[in-house]
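Q: what does this look like with Broken Fe4S4 cluster bound?
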Amino acid sequence: MNIEDYVIDPANTKMLQLAEDEGVSTCFSRYEDMTPQCGFGAAGVCCTMCLQGPCRVNPADNDKGNQEGICGARDYTIVARNLVRSIAAGSANHSGHARHVAEVLRGVALGEAEDYEIKDEAKLKKVATDLGIEVDGKETNEIVKEVAEEAISNFIGFHGEEVSWLKTAIPESRYNLLSDCDVIPQGINDAIADSMHRSAMGVDSDPLNLIFGGLETSLTDFTGCAIGTDLSDILFGTPELIESEANLGVLDEDAVNLLVHGHDPLLSEKIVEAAKRLEDEAKAAGAENGINIAGICCTGNELLMRQGVSLAANFTSQELAIMTGAVDAIVADVQCVMPSLQEISRCYHTDIITTMDIAKVSGAKHIQFNDSSANADADTIVRTAIEAFQKRDAEVDIPEHKSKLMAGFTVEQIVEVLQKVNADDPLSVITDALASGDIRGIALFAGCNNVKTKQDHNHLEVAKELVKNDVLCVATGCAANSLGKHGFLLPEAVEEYAGEGLKKVMGILSDAAGVDLPLVWHMGSCVDNSRAVRLATALADYTGLDLGELPIVATAPEAMHEKAVSIGTWAVTLGLPTHVGVVPPVTGSKLVTEVATKIAKDVYDGHFIVETDPKAAAEKLIAEIDERNWIQAMKTKARESDSYTTE
Ligand code: MSK
């Protein structure tokens, strides 16, 4: 294996080299072993919906002509069905996370989740008010119960009512457009179930009907994200600007290194508290520096945003963390946890601890985490990590490389910074910068790492090109982690990479805020993509424009998970041109590909841009931003001169 084809930073290069030298299998080596991958699967034309298959059809435009599956399903039906199932899975992940938080919030109101409390009452009241729940004269617990039950009702689709959370998070104009297209979901669970139903053998074979079903389901993913973010803020506090570090160098040889992995803050927040309680036990066990909690994937991002916990690894570096010999335990909740962790941990003293009944790993320790005994369960987990520390046997070799970073860019914090420039009219700071051209547009970096791209490379290259062209960048998930590892979440990066306009705006904001702001703004975990939409919605409401008219784009340069498919789909549906840096399995159908990359723009203003070259991707995103700016300028000019009238 040529290591340089897969990783670029010194820490992961060192660990991947070690894995190669010692013959340890990693996602990178398994990818090489797997290559060439199945062309039918890659194009999305492998159908396993019934036991007559698998049917693998050659799409049209080849020597064999248009083939059909055994039931007669054509390429477009198979690709659309597979796509809809991916979206449903993505939504089930995000909304499953949200449902757990909602249940615990209800448990707090009912006194059944005694280890949790409300940390942000102001956010509780804001969320309640947005949902139309009266707050005046009510006890906090009463509001908590009503908000939690409203969230839970969004899952059920009771009496055909539309999901209420969606309406609070997007502009009215966008909601009306979605309503006109009949894609407003009536219940998260219902939409996911409908997607599984309609994509089954012998049900929906009309690709356009399937795609509209997929769009509706993707909006339940967004709704789940918004619920997850809002309720986590209520329970654990809305994040504020915070400093931390990223990369394997955050591990500490003289501490119990406990890595939290997955997505669900309900467990990881309790682990942080337990680590503080049990610090002395760790020291007594020989860990001079006590307990060092660090994160992998989005559980890491959740804790970074609220607790300043450092990020040890993003998706494709999770296995390499174990190779340091310094990881005592990886505590997993749900999503993005590679089963291979257990196999690699056999060569070390590392305990892989699963905690959720739907997410076990063969051979791993399972310590069930219960909402009703959260503190005690967290103590048990941390004590298990302390015991593992005492069994360290392999040589510890922690790469020195790490980068400082700044995170915590919620909408609330961004507005607070803007208020320092203009107390009465904060959003005008952004819209004026957009109007003057100092900021050309705004881009949301979302998504994962993928072995098909060099780790972090596409994120960095797209970001470099965008910021050089004065695009303000915000980031979530493993994309933010990538940018953090390489110094893009630092103020120093502004001077190094930003164009003159962006530099000017960052300077004004930093001076006013009294703190140097970083080049890219970290908004949180996967579910916190909802924060980016709320920021866009605030700008849309302020300007009277729709999301589809603003110079805002999204990019997932290293997309991997089905959640990324779902996020990308709702981003397009909400009006954002959305770049994907990995070719998704839709190319087997010309029809589905054309709908996703072209026709969607006519209906929703957003469309997919599939581009594996990061520089070309950035250029295409900038072209989309410029097109919107040009259209807006023309509209404004026409309004000012009054030269355009329908009378
Ligand atoms: S963890 S979904 S690899 S961002 Fe959210 Fe990272 Fe993607 Fe998992």
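The chain has four domains: 3-56, 75-236, 248-389, 406-646. Residues 263, 297-298, 315, 336, 447-448, 477-478, 525-526, 560-561, 563-564 surround Broken Fe4S4 cluster (CB under 6 Å).
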